[in-house]
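Dear support,

I submitted the protein below through the web form. The confirmation email said the job was done, but the results page showed an empty box. After a refresh the structure appeared. I'm attaching both so you can tell me whether what I see now is the final result or a partial one.
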Amino acid sequence: MFRKIGKTVLGVVENMSYFCCEHSDDKIEIFGKGGGETLSRELSLPLLGSLPIDIELRKCGDKGIPLMIDSPDSDTARLFADIAHKLVTPFVVSEGK
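What the results page shows now:
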């Protein structure tokens, strides 16, 4: 869709990739596995990351407070930070030539 309207796509983020129940360390892949990887290959784009279904993220959204402010040390916040790092690193490196 974005390519059709002339917008640059930097990569794929797989949202709701899995759910981690508070009673287990198992990742429950409610919607299957590998959709983000498949799409990134089909579009020749990097897979920037896979984000879980996170109840704390939903609670932060309900409160109107970004997860990165409310719970910056959470696993999901670290995933968001990693995705952001992957997005800005090429620009930082190119500016430092």
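Response: this is the final, complete result; the empty box was a page-load delay. The mean pLDDT is 90.
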